[in-house]
């Protein structure tokens, strides 16, 4: 049942439709009346009938054509269906014919293989027999399920008979190939071994062939290792390289293994496929571990590596921060730890790991070719390697990105297929690389190398710490030098140790040494170098003459400094220069290490790059700490040296009048009573330190001195009273001082003068209204400033204090005007 509201809506719509119908009919009738009136009643009826007749005839013609088209479509549809059925039947017949022909060919091949394999075996034509077996093994299994044909039985070549013949031939040929391979291996006949090695894949015995060939390669590696081990026991072939005897022995072993892989890789890839090279590497890896382990064990035993690591560990645990370098050197000597011997030992350890890393990189390059998109990366990696032997050159060449094969566009229909092929190849290489990394990481060689590197880091840290403490103990200042020998010695030692760890090609080892180096600089080095700064600059009895004497003493060497105070001043200034110069040394160290990373660690992953960046950021923090200590020293030097003199010189400003008349102002313009003498004293005071400080310290001293000058001048200004002319004279004197300081210390000094400049400008206003407008203008400038302009540097309290210095401004008027600014 519809609701009453819906019925009412329907009725309303019906009424609207009726009204619209009536309007349309009315318009039609009106048009007909107009046409009838224009043409007449008879003509109109005749024309109307003719139009209707034409339309009916057109409708009949269209209907006839549509019926004809429908009949044609039905006929065509039937024909198409008939053709489709016939084509499907033809396709089915064709596929069955092709399948039948394939079966016939398979049966023919089966008979050919059965008849030919036995003859080939009897004639020792094992390659031909293996090809017959290979064809037999690749036949469709459906061939062997087919029933025997009468003619085939009569001919004596039934399917069952052929299958039995070939199966027995397969077993016999496998036995013969294995036997002949073992005989050739025993006789050392390499050509025969390679001949029969190629036959294993044809009879589907890949693993058997690889295992036998892998055992043969292991024997070669064992002989190679024994030969080089005997040479090592005899002391090597070059007396000049006895310090790296064990590293050279490992290199020779790696060279032999690389030569073996390089020689047999083409046979393996062509006969067994590229994937089987990784399987062969897994088979020979234990023998590589064994031979390399012998050399490394001999190194540990004869170089007393474990013993030295224990001694270093015990010394490190016993050493306290208060122990000096001399006392630690005595302890080291008593324990039998020689720094020079440690240096040679550490260099050999890193060289051994470098050779192992280079050998692993050679294996990765042999197994995984670089993707096409990255073939041009790290083109000059090998140019900076300094290997001396053939394996190193070969392995470096293998480490270089190879020329990517030209993926001819003719092999692919479109760009999308080419990209798909490249992507599949890239994933395959990544999979091979992951498998190889797993093999290498689990190997005994990798485990042994990691153990060596762990102890290497401990010994290297001890060597670096001992060397730095010795450099601190031997710190001296050469004649004419502003810095001491400490900087060159310490940063040389730190860079040497870190660069030695970089040569190991181990990112974790490099990060550990970066952390140790940064920690050593922040503890031992910074503690020593910052001690005189914390004590402060001795100022007792200071004068321009004593400053000149200090400069002469420093210029002529530390040994000529006489007296306790003079020595303390000389040490303070040298330390201050050391701190500032250390910042440049840290930056040079960073840039040098970054270049070493680019040369020696160009192929590391993005994650390893982040590790290095994080470790290197410690040097940025250390440089900031050095700058803080240097700035602190400059502040203490200025406080001890300049503040008393500037304070005394500024007191002379209080002795001259500041409420001037026109005559006094004119006289002051001719003969400056204060500023000229103040600048002369300041210039004489500053000039003494130009020869004592490095340029950066001298520049910072000028800035600090300028700040002190402004503060002292501001102090005495607030003790005086000015009239309009006195304020004008003060402005002239301040401009003279500002120009002098700017010419001395640069434009940055003007920022230090902003506050006093605004006060003096406020003091020079002619009326309080002008003063209020000036402050409001400064406030507007501050609000619209983008951060470059100084804006307002004085508070309302400073404005009140400044205006009170004007003797012609009453306090009541000043208070009233300042209420406007507060509002």
What's the domain count? Answer: 5
Specify the CATH class of the largest domain. Mainly Alpha
Distance between the termini: 77 Å
CATH fold call of the largest domain:
Methane Monooxygenase Hydroxylase, Chain G, domain 1
Instruction: Return the string of H and E elements.
Output: HHHHHHHHHHHHHHHHHHHHHHHHHHHHHH
Largest sheet: none
- Outline: flat
GO biological process, one term: Golgi organization
Family: Belongs to the COG4 family.
Coiled coil: 7-72
InterPro entries: COG4, COG4_C, COG4_M, COG4_N
Commentary on this structure:
This protein is mostly helical and 823 residues long. It has five domains: 4-89, no CATH class; 105-190, no CATH class; 206-314 and 339-368 and 388-403 and 448-457; 474-639, Orthogonal Bundle (Tetracycline Repressor, domain 2); 656-822, Up-down Bundle (Methane Monooxygenase Hydroxylase, Chain G, domain 1). The chain is built from 30 helices and no strands. Helix 2 runs antiparallel to helix 3, helix 12 crosses helix 16 (444-473) and helix 25 packs antiparallel against helix 27 (754-763). It is flat and about 140 Å long.
